[in-house]
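Subject: Early growth response protein 1 structure
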Amino acid sequence: MGHPICHHSERSRFSRSQHFCMDPATTIPTATSSYTPLATGSYPSLATGSYPPLATGSYPSLATGSYPSLATGSYPSLATKSSSYPSQATNSYPATISLYPSLATSSHPSLETRSCPAPISPYPSLATSSHPSMATSSCPAHATSAYPALANSHYPASATTASSYPALANSHYPASATTASSYPALANSHYPASATTASSYPALANSHYPASATTASSYSSLATSSYPFPTTSPYPATNSSHPATTTTSLPCCPLS
C-alpha cells in the first residue's frame, strides 16, 4: 500500500485550516458527470421534440389533408368554384362539404394549392380526365358560374369562368377557357383551345390545334380551324338581332 495522499484546505480566514488524508486506492467522487441529466439532455424531451406533436404535425390533419376533396377519382380532383349548383364527388380521401356532389373521373390526381377551403357550390362541375387537372389558387373559385363547368379530356382541362352557363371542353390535350359570358365557351380540340371573351353568347372553337379568341361582341365568335388562330370577333354579329349560334339553356352532357 502506498503513502496516503494528504490535502490541505483553508475554508476562510475565520475558520481554521483543515488537513485530511486519503488512501490512493480510494476514488475521488466527482460532482460533474460527462452525461447531461435527462432534463437538459442532448435529445429533446417529448414536449419540445424535434418532431412536432400530432396537432401541428408535418402531415396535415384530415380536415386540411394533403389530398384534397375528390370528385370521382382514386386521387383528389380539383374543382374550385362558386357555382349555383353542386360539386359532386366520390373520393378515397375526405371530401369538402358541398350542397351537392362534384363529379370527376380521373385516373391520376388533380393538383390544387389553395389557402382557402373549397367553396360550397350550388350546381355540379363535371370532369372526365385520364390525367390530373391542375389549379393553384389563393382562394377557391376558379369557376364562378351559375351552371357547371364541364370538361371531357384525355389530358387535364382547366376552366376559369364567370359565366351563367357552363364552359365546355372536349379535348385530347388540355383546354382552358376564361370567359365572362352569359352562355358557355365551347371548345372541341385535339390540342388545347383557349378563349377569352366578354360576350353575351359563347365563343366557339373547333380546332385540331389550339385556338384563341378574344372578343367583346354581343354575340358569339365562331372559329373552325386546323391550326391555331388568334382573332378578335371572327364573326362579329353585333348588329344582328339573333345570335350566330344556338345554345341550350341547360347543359345536358359532355361532348364526346
